[in-house]
Amino acid sequence: MQSLSRRYFFYGAALSAAVPAAGFGSSPSLKSLGYKSPNEKLNLAAIGAGGQPAADLRIAHAGVENVVALADVDWTRGEESFKRFPNAEKFKDFRQMLDKKGKEIDAIVVGPPDHMHATCALACMQLGKHIYCEKPLTRTSWEARLLRQATEKYKVATQMGNQGYSHDATRVACEIIWSGEIGDVTEVHAWTGRPSWPQGMTQTPAASPVPGTLDWDLWLGGAAARPFTAGDATYSQFVTDRNTRYGRTGRDPWGYYLPFNWRGFYDFGSSLIGDWGVHILGPANWALQLGPEHLISVECVKKDSLPPTTFPDVLTIKYVFGPRPGMPPVTIYWYHHAGGDAYLPPGMTAEQARKIPNEGPQVGPAPTGPPRPVPPNSGYNEIFVGAKGYLGTSGRGEGVGLLPGSRWAEYKLPAPYLSRSPGASTGSNHAAHARDWIRACKGGAPACSNFSIAARYTEWLVLGAAAVHVDGKLLWDNAKGEFSNNREANKWVKPTFRKGWEIKL
Predict the structure, then answer these.
(1) Mean pLDDT throughout 421-426?
(2) Where are the domains of the chain?
(3) Does 17 score more than 60 pLDDT?
(4) Which residue has the higher pLDDT, 304 or 252?
(5) Rounded to whole angstroms, what are the CA distances from 231 to 60, 243, 245?
(6) Eight-class DSSP state of 221
(7) What CA–CA distance (Å, rounded) separates 106 from 201?
(8) Residue 17: helix, strand or coil by DSSP?
(9) What is the pLDDT of residue 138?
(10) How many Å apart are CA 58 and CA 165, to the nearest integer?
């Protein structure tokens, strides 16, 4: 296409997830691995049977595939999938599931807390199982690199659960940037609000009885042992006061760690960096060809506190990347922001930046129902700063537009270049993302966020979580996979596994 800069051609082709010319299942390398044809049913399993992995499994199943086994350390939490798939055999320990049912299983949804992603995914890949792993792919950078190496070794079909990658808008954002519409991009600003879960506690509540349906030791897995606690009166008051301070009503129906708050703890998650950063920064990662080999430095340039066990509520991370082929150096800013827009182009108001209703290209399904209220901000949560203008994306990469809105109102999209994910233009991109993986499992093209892509993305992204622990700029040595100027920060690049839970290829 004439409007697409030739310098970006190789990258778009590599990540386009194009269908093989001879159709699904035509790739000799896939057939040689014994992949099933698109007409056969897969035998699916899941590690994590409630919450998000339950949704992933339901969508991957789609009333078509078989579900033969389910593992969850908490059988109350897993009841959602146990009821939906009553013929699937139940386990608490995923290792027992693999030992007993491994020969029957083709593909596995991996969705335990982040600190167990790499452990579970690697064990499954080593048995030749295809993997759909929830985002972020791993808690630490070292684990992401390990899964990238595992992908090269075991050659199974993989997908990370950042479903924005399957939406048309993310691909349109790439095409607009590659067309040169906003010129060379030198900055990206991306943000989200404060976490919905409590963070910032300075004391750990006393131990409380472990629920009868939960295997707490298995839940901890490779993390350091500690007593279970559901919280106490002091913690409850902390949550109430926090919600009041941030304008939230009611009390959160969650315990201290489970089933959701683990995301804010250093040992178990990466806070909003991995929870929402992996979604919001997806268009930047794809369009700007970001990778750990191009990363120069990471720095936490702002934080409102440094709690002993959880991430701060407010922080700003600065990533500096060197030049990539055909692209200049770029600085990426990630904000945990109190509200509103963390960034607007100089001299531009939120009202000017916002799209003009019913004007300009419609990317993806048009909204239905009554008109939505005008947002108080720009409507974007990621803004690319180019030499010739600005581009914004929203949601999980599910919205795209040029700033100001008047420019978008007159804009004509470049001709489509990247192939579109089946179904993403007409329905749920979550469903399209899961079915993209199922297609790959059956011999189709690699899924759009397969681990060869997702692991490189996660590897640089979660270094922001490591940077929270120290002050100053951290210089990245990609060859060694560590920071070259701070040993303390390197403690957060590779986890220390509890004895018996160590992982290796």
Answers:
(1) 76
(2) 6-164, 169-196+268-417+462-490, 198-259
(3) no
(4) 304
(5) 35, 16, 20
(6) T
(7) 42
(8) coil
(9) 98
(10) 19
Fold of 169-196+268-417+462-490: Dihydrodipicolinate Reductase; domain 2 (3.30.360)
The sign of the dihedral angle between the CA atoms of 309, 310, 312, 318 is positive
CB within 8 A of 71, min separation 6: which ones?
45, 46, 47, 48, 49, 90, 91, 92, 93, 94, 96, 97
- What's the pLDDT score for residue 21? 33
Q: How far is CA 251 from CA 51, 236, 469, in A?
A: 20, 8, 29
Does residue 231 sit in helix, strand or coil? coil
pLDDT at 11 > cutoff 90 = no
Confidence (pLDDT) at 37: 55
Q: CA dihedral in degrees (206, 212, 215, 217; nearest 10)?
A: 30
pLDDT tens digits, one per residue of 263-284:
999 999 999 999 999 999 999 9
Q: Which residue, among 154, 138, 167, has the nearest Cα to 455 in the 3D structure?
A: 138
User: Which CATH number applies to 6-164?
Assistant: 3.40.50.720
Q: Do domains 6-164 and 169-196+268-417+462-490 have the same CATH topology?
A: no
Helix (H, G, I), strand (E, B) or coil at 317: strand
Contact predicate 445/439, CB 8 Å: yes
Tokens standing for residue 241: 């006061």
User: Tokens in use for 237?
Assistant: 């008051």
- pLDDT band for position 248 (cuts 50, 70, 90): confident
